[in-house]
Batch of 2 targets.
Target 1
Amino acid sequence: MTENKTLAKGFSVKEFFVKNMVVVILICLILGFGLGTGGKFFSANNLVNLTTQMAINAMLSAGLTYVIILGGIDISVGSVAALAGVISTLIATKFPGLTAWSSIPVLILPAILVGLICGSFNGFMISRMSVVPMIATLAMQTIGRGLCFIFSGGTAVSGIPKPYSFVGAGRWLATEGNPNGWIPNITIFVVIAVAIVHILLSKTVFGRHVYATGSNPQVAHLAGVNTKNTVFLGHVICSVMAALAGVLNASKLCSGQPAACDGYEMYAIAATVLGGTSLTGGSGSVGRAMFGVAVIAVINNGMNLMHINSYWQKVVIGAIILFAVILDMAQKKKKV
Amino acid sequence: MKRLQPYLQAVHITKVFPGVKALTDVSVDFYPGEVHALMGENGAGKSTLIKILSGVYTATEGEILLDGKQIEFKGPRDAMDKGISVIHQELSIAKDLTVAENIFLGEEQTNGIFLDNRSMNARADELLRQMKMDAIIKSTDVAGDLTAAQQQMVEIARVINKNAKVVIMDEPTSSLSEHEIDALFEQIRILRSKGVAIAYISHRMKEIFEICDRATVLRDGCFVRTDLIKDITEHELVASMVGREIDDYFVHTEHTRGEETLRVEGLSHGREFKNVSFTAYKGEILGIAGLVGAGRTETMETIFGARHADSGKVFVRGKEVHFKSPKDAIANKIGMVTEDRRTTGLMLKAMIKDNEVLPSLIYHMKSLGFADQKWIDSVSREYVGKLRVKTPSVETIIGNLSGGNQQKVVLAKWLIAQSEILILDEPTRGIDVNAKSEFYTLMNDFVDQGGTIVMVSSELPEVLGVSDRIIVMCEGRVTGELSREEATEQKIMVLASQTE
């Protein structure tokens, strides 16, 4: 055992590749699409667009990472996002004089409220009523989607003042070559939000308790960790991030669609797993999930640039997820 | 021994669960700097007492005194804060966290709102250095990569870090090798010299006499006796645990050996076992002795079809067989009681009856593949009765039974499958004295009715007490065969350590 351990501590190229598979995949994809599109992929404009295309999934995956590390799952994030988008746009229609800056509370406050309510529902059902996460969040998914259609009257919310799109579609630093601006507000927003949840998970006592609870709830409980509250809060964070993603999406499109973000939970789960978060709980990180988000965004973006049928994008993403998970399993098997 | 004030005292404790009185008027004192053995069969009330002392349960009657003052624990966390730590039988380690993260779990150090990993790692390394473990375990190692023994050392470091005044150890050696037990005892002696009171629970007599200063025996929830270890013999301890004098709990009856039933010739697989040959006969118990890691389990699993040999032959009732999987072995009326019943012997979350009939189900199908519920109910009840499994019904979830009763169900499973050859791998591991004795009786009954038993056991008294004939293995080879008459502990040990 001791010998094996010292051996394992030495640097191994193979181990590096296996551990950082998502980074390797990302680099390969970027180089591949760079060549495949004759450099179009690397244009500054495309790279900036890429960050806006990653935004929604980045928010969803960052929140979902908490839940998956806790050993659970949340398939309601798409519905929660849509619900927040519908409610926020409905409020915006009540303020015809909305300005760019005053649109921010109209986005954030309803999002936090929706996130707190939906996350508390999931968290309560799972941590206090012992409902299996898949079922509790399946219920939330269906309820949330139903509420979207009830509140919006079944159609897209109309009559939203234009400044509502400031956060989702606005940009800074306009130049002659790029009159829209270089730095998207949505990217700034997402970077800050993701950084906060990343630090909360990796640097604080609460974050440490998330890992411990996901790794072994009995052990954590016996060590004095309040595992029920940890699970509850993990779900609240996940839903708040999802609701924020939903209002960003509504702002980006300047529209409150009751059917928005349908199926986005699958992309978020895929990104989180690609980033190396174990579906059995206990390990993973928000930062790494972002690499998974990037992989999915790069595939979609690159294939669009190459004019490949968008149905193929789904096939390719599915194959890459499978590949990443099989590698992950192989690595785990070796350990045992 | 210094005569000090006891640090932790249980005074006239009674604990009643709905329908069961788990403890009746039990009083025990734990002195600082003393290792105090808590003994008793499974179900004697040791676990309940520990749970009351560590704040998991509250006593129905009686009180807990800490340093002479009456105290009530609000929960395990509260007891821990007051200096009482438990090292559980199952390791309490979060495998995905690092060593330092585990040591500080629940009491992380921070700079403001952020974790102070640097000082936690430094403190963890310092603790490991004090334990002389720093060459093997580092604060940043992932706990899941460590061996079971090393993980236990991390638990001990956690206890030291908490400045625990009382450490309760619940069968801490159950998954350790001989060598690792020595290392654990070293740490226990260090704790003792620092004045920590240690409650030590184990079924292994040898350990009690090696490490403990005092022993308290419980039986059926009642206090039996407390003695200094130097004033009591092993025989007296066992007698007070089971409540009757037992001269020899290894029940041995004379068997009459019949024809050959299982013959193995030159079985080899890689480095695990080489050229293993032996023959087992009807009406006999063949013991397979050796040290842990001698390749005995691997050999047995190969005979049972769970692994595949590189070369060699297996004959069952004189005919050569080639088992592709355990299914073929079961069809040939071979059963195997595996080494670890919790992971490979039982479906812990299933009912007793479903565990009992699993291998036989395909032989009792009705048309269209429906299970024969009537047969399942009647046969499972019949065998629970025959083997005297203590359970309210056959619908009880098996994980809720005691180890001894679980093991009886494993045996029932193979009896229902009408096995004629039984391979038993460490059949009485982790079960108490009385249950062991009952299990040996069941083994004898099986052999008397014409069965064959091949029993792997690492406990020498067991091998000597139960077997009709003994084969000894070392490093994957058969190093000798002894008859019941000629076998002694010493002869077996010589053969078991006969390296090439």
Target 2
Amino acid sequence: MELLILIFLPLVGAIATALFTKRNTAKVAALVFSIFSLAVAIGLLCKFTPDASTQFVVNFPWIEQLGINFHAGIDGISMITVLLTNVLTPLIILASFKHEYKNANAFYALVLFMQTGLLLVFTALDAFLFYIGWEAALIPIYFICATWGGKDRIKVNMKFFVYTIAGSLFMLLGIIYLFLQNPANNFELAEFYKLELDATQQGWIFWAFFIAFAIKMPIFPFHTWQPDTYTTAPTPGTMLLSGIMLKMGIYGVIRWLLPVVPQGVQDWTHIVIVLAIIGVVYAAIIAFMQKDAKRLVAYSSVSHVGLIAAGIFTLSHQGLQGSMIQMLSHGINVIGLFFVLDIINSRLATNKVDELGGLAKVAPQLAITFLIILLGTVALPGTNGFIGEFLLLMSVYSYNAWLGAVAGLTIIFGAVYMFRSYQKIMLGETNALTAGFKDINGTEKVVLYTICALIIVIGVYPKPLMQISDASVQHLLQQINHKLTGIN
Amino acid sequence: MNIIITIALTALVVLYTGLFKAKKALLPITLLGLLVALGFTICSWDQPTVHFGMMQIDNFALAFASISIIGTFFIFLLTQRYFAENSQNIAEYFTLILFALCGIIIMVSYKNLSMLFVGIEIMSVCLYILAGIRKLNFASNEASLKYFLMGAFSTGFLLFGIALIYGATGSFDIDVIQTNLVNNVTNVSPLFYPGIILIMVGLCFKVGAAPFHFWTPDVYEGAPSLITAFMSTVVKTAGFAAFLRLFAGAFEPLHDFWMPALMVIVIITLCLGNITALYQKNFKRMLAYSSISHAGYLLFSLIVLTAHSASNVLVYAAAYTFASIVAFAVLINVKQKTGSDDIESFNGLAKRNPLAALALTIAMLSLAGIPLTAGFIGKYVMFLNVMENYQVILVVIAILNALVGFYYYFRVIIAVYFKEGKEVELDTPVQYKVVLVISTIVILVLGIYPALILNLI
């Protein structure tokens, strides 16, 4: 029951928000609803016992004739992603407060509608429900980016849309295939776990699912939609995409790919990890060349996500745990970065690194918060990025030392270009453009300080977070190993 | 039987009312007649009857009859303001549509091949006239003539096929034909094979499946929009019901023989419809080609025959009908204001009329097959049906086509929301609003809770 409230509260909020035609009321209504959702999520967290069980389960028949149930629940892995969604959404809404969007009610209604879709994805235990949530999250973000985006938004978003939906249609094919193999004639995740498919079948299913997830994350070479989409989208859209939506792909791999077709994963894992590491290096090099800070962050995000993917596919405890915590950290950090750039862009109408400079002198608060977020991104010990990145690198290293070394060096390289752009934007002398820059105020302060607080708190004391998912990850690995040894 | 009688009587009453120039009474009488017919349809649910060995009113027939009647009802609601500007002979319009509906009811409930022919002819003759009812319009005349020639041609095929089947079995009754086939599985009369193929060709003409689709775009574009709406929804649904009754019923024992031929037709239809639709600038033409591609998806149900084939067609047809009606309603509305039915004339519709824009968007999403709309469920059950028989390649082709479909349906959405248009206020008459709102709700309800109509028949 609590879970239904969690999932559908944003939807109710979306409908309510759509009815407020006054811009400011719509904003406030959206914020209030997202904070309520956060409160519900925290309530669930308090009741949550960190073992491997699935809790708060709701299960009732939805479309009986087709064997579809509304079956959802939360285990440790879901809990992390649910928290991520519900912590970031209010921040994202608050971060958009300075913008005056046309038809604000529609804008905020779409954001909240998307939240419901995301929560469905993260809690679904029925493959059909998962697919519905997957698409329900895509439609609003398409409209958000294509309506309120920048130059070339129509073309860029069409590409984004066709790309992602192409992936998801093949995933649907895979889901139908599994359903037809399932003697119980339903879409239950638990039944899918039990299926005994041979290696060829697993290989096909693996690719059907993997392409959908790889496009969403995105993993090299399926990433080409991403930098353009991030750049043209309105900032809240970019935050939703990079902060939450790409985690759908990661979560999908963990929940629907690894345990359902472990043999397929094992057969292809080497190629995937190599692709992921190529992505890490490739994106880092491109990021290094970027003049536009927003594009730089977009590419660095590809780089970081590549590492998460590589870590997951090592099928090790560190890799999975690292990816769980890194999902959360990456979400927080990346929306922080995009927000800082948005603040700069909204005042100076540019994100070109070369045109900026000396902002630290005129805006010390912005400079210090930006620095903290940046440190989190480059995974300095004591910030939230460290623990996840450390675990991920360790897992890749123990999988293959060479790959680990390449990935590790790239992360250091990442720090270089991040600090270089920080130096150019914040340090040095002010120029004609930046001299009159006003420091952050009002809602901007609230958002940035919250993000910084999260970065430091999680960085210093990540243990409670790690505990949430620990038992579930352990259980998942047992399941995978059990199935693998059963077949061999 | 009551259904046909009611509709035919309504048609006659309307004709006489028109004679006495009581224009205002036409629409209420028609709508009332349709409601009574719908009432009869619903009352006869679960009470299968056979009339004179010619017509079999079972749940299959009733379900398709209901969709046809509801679709026609909505199309009549759209006549407000439409005919007044186009013609003096509104009564004839109404009568012809109603008679066509009679033919359609016969088509969905025939038990005898001669009734199939009679039903198709009653419907087609009315449509030939309706397509050309704008006497002074060149395109309309062209559409009518083309439709007539092609239609007559296809009827010839159909009739020849029926004759061959009669030659093989000595009967027009579809149950007798089926029994004949079942009893002689090893020794089927050779007349059956050309007979089945010819009937298939004839029916493919009627439903507009490639490569027998050439009339569709021109006729759809040339005919008055309202008639096009009628043709592409109600008529098409009836065509599929007729198809299904024969091929999933009587010819089912020879499935292995005609399935490969149909499979080729399906693949050509899907690819051709979708790829050509991609290049259309005219909204009506685009809908025509998209209707060809939908015919392809609908034929999926015949590739693999299961207990659910009929039900799947019903779901798909319902989804398609309601979405198309919304599309045509908005099209007529826009065309009256801007004088053009190009996709460009939809530019900026969101500002001019948010309701129409939203309804059109949901309709397009449904036609494209996005989850939570009826169109998705329709496509889903079709895919599921075919996957059950491991026709994975076919599903992959269908998925690639669905992707192409997204592209051109989204072009309409892009025009509506993201392009700047001329700031002409677009007012929607009340009846249009009713149609838009109800259809949109139906699309969403069927998309979110399709259990309502799944496996109904």
